[in-house]
Amino acid sequence: MNVVEVNDLVKRYGEVVALDHFDLSIAQGEIFGLLGPNGSGKTTAINCVLQLLTYSSGRIDLFGEPMGATRYDLKRRIGVVPQQVAVFAELSVAENIDYFCSLYVRDETRRRELVAAAIEFVGLRSYAKFRPKKLSGGLARRLNIACGIAHRPELIILDEPTVAVDPQSRNAILQGVQRLRGEGATVVYTSHYMEEVEQICTRVMVMDKGRAVAVGTPNELKSMVGIGERIRVELDAPDDAVLAAVRRLPHTQHATLSGTTLQLTCAHGAQNLSEVLDALTAAGTAYGKVYAEPPTLNDVFLELTGAELRD
Fold first, then answer.
1. Do the beta carbons of residue 50 and residue 78 sit within 8 Å?
2. Which residues are within 8 A (CB) of 311 and not within 5 positions of it... i.e. 6 or more apart?
3. Which fold has domain 227-294?
4. Sign (positive or negative) of CA dihedral 276, 279, 283, 284
5. Which of 191, 202, 230, 278, by CA, is between 20 and 30 Å from 85?
6. What is the CATH number of domain 2-222?
């Protein structure tokens, strides 16, 4: 079953088309990455799904049922973690989580269980009595997540949850997202950190100008771009003849020589690295360290949204 189904959605702000016949399908149990440059329509799409914005035309179904502004039965099944930390400064960690959980769960006994579980889930047991201003940025973001998931929602929307956090907190958040999926939740994840999306997302959509320009698994998206891999070789005695030799290789797209470092961008090809090394050997050039990097989601993002790759 698709937890989220959006068909032919159009949203306008005056003459500006924010969503241009936008479609979106998210299956149960996915961690779905929603990517796009600023102004691409990501936030507008999410706010329309949550019925925080009206839209010109289109249809939105959640959990197989039509979503509407008064469908509180469906809204109770959703958890939202905004990009900005949105908690009450005068309440403690536990009190904040309890307050947000109380919006969905009235039974106090059940709520105590859920709050305790959420505190444990995000690793804030030692900080339960702290007020938010006493928390580091990373711990405050963990609190933000706990407030959004304490009521055990089936659909969780995480809007850039790791912005400006330390590596330890980032790792804890990413592991937590994967655990949420393991417990049965469906997650929509927005981020500008492509390595995070590649690490945890089962499928990814790249948006631009209010439309989906590509949808697929990370590997499927990487196969769409023209870049096969980047290769960097440290040469003992570089010269222009060596540069010319590697530029003649059939899969070389771009090659530069910076000091003793040869850098290449290649098209897709199974033998790119061996061809480069064979060319260096044929030219009588000795080499040292060799690095080869396959295409990344960042390459996909830059190519599909029209940005230029620069060396």
1. yes
2. 254, 256, 263, 265
3. Alpha-Beta Plaits (3.30.70)
4. positive
5. 202
6. 3.40.50.300
pLDDT tens digits, one per residue of 246-284: 999 999 999 999 999 999 999 887 788 999 999 999 999
- Tell me the β-bridge partners of 211: 208
Residue closest to 64 by CA, chosen among 54, 55, 73, 51: 73
Contact 83, 163 (CB under 8 A): yes
Boundaries of every domain in the chain: 2-222, 227-294
Q: What is the mean pLDDT of each run of 10 residues along the chain (311 residues)?
A: 96 95 97 93 95 96 96 96 94 98 96 96 95 94 95 96 87 93 96 91 95 94 83 91 93 92 88 92 93 87 65 33
Which among 96, 178, 105, 102 is positioned nearest to 139, based on CA atoms? 96
Q: How far apart are CA 173 and CA 254, in angstroms?
A: 38
